[in-house]
Predict the 3D structure of the following.
Amino acid sequence: MTKNRLLNIAVVICKTLKITYILAFIATTFIFIHIQTNNSQYADKILSFNSTTNKSTSVLPFHYTSTNKWKEGTSLKDEEVYTTTKITTFSLYIIYLKYVLILILIYFCANEFQSIVQTTKRYKPFLKNNVKSFRRIGKYLIIYYVLTSYSIIHYQEGGFSTLSLSLGPLILILISFIMAEIFKEGNALMEENELTV
Amino acid sequence: MPIVINLDVMLAKRKMRSKELAEIIGITTANLSILKSGKAKAVRFSTLEAICKALECQPADILEYIEG
């Protein structure tokens, strides 16, 4: 496979991802509005969690889930507490904003990666802008990691929280910052080469 | 940088234009301009040799070290 064909495929993938995220954003917004306007349709949608606290033994991936009911000792079943309709409005807005922010961050990551690939296609990969792009991707992934690792949902009669730490995004963050440093060195070499007469 | 390029002085002494020199030594006028303005980070021995040959001078006539 030639270099340009591979890069063209990467650009197409980035563009497809961007379109997908825009559509996902629209779908999320639609679902968010629909939950609030047509609340009755979601009355039977039960979100089942393990009421018991579970903890994995290995360091990473680490997963911790906790559920609790505000009125302890009452005979409320999980099915009565953890329904979509009983999520508090504030919690619903937080969930919506969180997912929208995640979609925006992944969109920005795809956008930055596309610009890096396009400069590589023009045989000028070691530009200062690409160094900045890799650093930005790293920063976006840090925010993404924070947003995706912790989740909390408040219900009218209970709450659910989860902490999930995985190794994948951490490796991606590390790779982004290492790539930024490599491209920074490449940029210094390119400038030196260009200014050699 | 404390290294100063005195190419302008030598060109004036030899009554030669930059474009003419660039053509003789086989580099672009843009690169010669980088060299003249002191923006260059390195000079190839082959370029220096060609400049000295074209201007009939020594490397020391073109390059000068000024402290400070």
Notes: Chain B touches chain A through twelve residues (CB under 8 Å). Chain B has a mean pLDDT of 90. The longest strand of chain B covers residues 3-5. Chain B has five helices and two strands.
